[in-house]
């Protein structure tokens, strides 16, 4: 399916994308390119779509090199953050536009015999099929400016899928939506992509959007892919402290693991990691209020959130860390409290080539690969 080999994009002296390799080799699978602002995500997407010339590297599809094929002949579906629907057309009109463009693109690459111009009845049937796929049956005659943000993105998805593209590229598709809707729509998008059997690349800076959407996440920082993992392993085993900080871990402790027990400055904690040296990555929920916990700390600040307390605490010999409590914990600034370290909410960074089963999925500078041939 899609293979990006050693893609680099430079603007003058500045390298925006550095030697990125990406493979998606199964229809219906989603690879998320996750990285901070300016890390090169959109440049990779544009390079795959043919919207950005590559300084070096290749893009191929099913073994065919399409690096120099113009954008309208690549048969790639694109969905952007704001959907970019035609406001003067109905929902059906927007989806039909996708069909027209798609069949034209296919005719342009000599694919007209296998995908002939559709009759009116065939177009109508395809629109109905897509409305059903994206959960908008009955919305065909609605004007798109009468849709909610989530509905509009569903239409954008249907329009992109209409010509049965061989690849779907989603650029921050849910970023304009509010949090709750974003999470719900992410689950639907995943289902829609799986049903359509279209290999899909999504770029996003939003951790939970990537986790909700993707079968596999490639972390890109400063133009380089630093880790490729299924979402669960990414947060369990960040490749290094740079990736871990981007993922939200804030404090790092040297540790030595033996038989599933890590010994560190905060004592011993059960973790999932191979015997040997490691670094424990502590996030907001690694240290939790526990009246008889082994860690003594002084509360520096407390914020009450709907799902519990978030604190900054000072720990002798370690420094300031984040910690969490429930809404039932009575905690005030300056108080001395006891905390427990939750190994299941702590990242374990193991040195490369340590032999850990989970470490196989995150090799620095590796190629991102998602689908049946994934090497995890
Ligand atoms: N045409 C250009 N000329 C010069 N520099 C560019 C150009 N396009 C992008 N860049 C730079 O390349 C880097 C990567 O940009 P890109 O848009 O790919 O990042 P991104 O990860 O998608 O960021 P964001 O999440 O903010 O959209 C940025 O530093 C950007 O300023």
From TrEMBL:
Region annotation Disordered: where it falls in the sequence: 350-376
Presence of the UniProt keyword Nucleotide-binding in the record: yes
* InterPro entries the UniProt entry points to: AAA+_ATPase, ABC_SmlMolc_Importer, ABC_transporter-like_ATP-bd, ABC_transporter-like_CS, P-loop_NTPase
Domain of life of the organism in this record?
Bacteria
- Cite the Pfam families for this sequence: ABC_tran
Signal sequence interval, chain numbering: none
Q: Where is the composition biased (Polar residues)?
A: 353-364
Query: What keywords tag this UniProt record?
Result: ATP-binding, Nucleotide-binding, Transport
Q: What EC number(s) does this enzyme carry?
A: 7.6.2.9
Top-level EC class, please? translocase
Named from the GO MF annotations, one term is:
ATP binding
Q: Where is the ABC transporter domain?
A: 2-247
SUPFAM superfamilies from the UniProt entry: P-loop containing nucleoside triphosphate hydrolases
Instruction: Say if the entry is tagged with keyword ATP-binding.
Output: yes
The record's listing under PANTHER family reads:
SPERMIDINE/PUTRESCINE IMPORT ATP-BINDING PROTEIN POTA, SPERMIDINE_PUTRESCINE IMPORT ATP-BINDING PROTEIN POTA
Q: What is this protein called?
A: ABC-type quaternary amine transporter
Gene source species: Hoyosella rhizosphaerae
């Amino acid at each position: 399916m899609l293979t990006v080999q050693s893609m680099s994009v430079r603007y003058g002296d500045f390298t925006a994308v550095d030697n990125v390799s990406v493979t998606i080799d199964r229809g219906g699978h989603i690879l998320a390119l996750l990285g901070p602002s300016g890390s090169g995500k959109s440049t990779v997407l544009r390079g795959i779509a043919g919207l950005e010339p590559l300084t070096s590297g290749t893009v191929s599809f099913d073994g065919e090199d399409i690096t120099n094929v113009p954008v309208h002949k690549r048969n790639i579906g694109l969905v952007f953050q704001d959907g970019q629907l035609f406001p003067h057309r109905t929902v059906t009109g927007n989806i039909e536009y996708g069909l027209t463009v798609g069949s034209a693109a296919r005719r342009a690459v000599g694919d007209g015999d296998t995908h002939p111009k559709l009759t009116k009845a065939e177009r109508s049937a395809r629109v109905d099929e897509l409305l059903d796929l994206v959960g908008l049956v009955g919305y065909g005659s609605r004007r798109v400016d009468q849709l909610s943000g989530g509905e509009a993105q569903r239409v954008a998805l249907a329009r992109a899928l209409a010509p049965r593209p061989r690849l779907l590229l989603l650029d921050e598709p849910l970023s304009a939506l509010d949090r709750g809707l974003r999470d719900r729509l992410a689950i639907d998008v995943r289902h829609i992509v799986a049903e359509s059997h279209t290999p899909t690349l999504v770029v996003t800076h939003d951790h939970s959007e990537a986790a909700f959407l993707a079968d596999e996440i490639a972390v890109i920082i400063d133009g380089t892919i630093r880790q490729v993992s299924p979402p669960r392993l990414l947060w369990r085993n960040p490749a290094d402290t740079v990736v871990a900080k981007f993922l939200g871990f804030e404090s790092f402790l040297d540790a030595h693991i033996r038989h599933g027990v890590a010994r560190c400055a905060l004592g011993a904690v059960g973790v999932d990691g191979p015997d040997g040296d490691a670094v424990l990555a502590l996030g907001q929920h690694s240290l939790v209020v526990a009246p008889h916990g082994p860690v003594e700390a002084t509360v520096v600040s407390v914020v009450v959130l709907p799902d519990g307390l978030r604190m900054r605490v000072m720990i002798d010999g370690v420094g300031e860390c984040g910690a969490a409590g429930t809404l039932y914990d009575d905690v005030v600034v300056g108080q001395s409290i006891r905390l427990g370290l939750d190994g299941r909410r702590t990242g374990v960074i193991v040195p490369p080539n340590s032999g850990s089963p989970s470490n196989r999925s995150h090799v620095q500078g590796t190629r991102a690969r998602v689908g049946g041939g994934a090497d995890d």
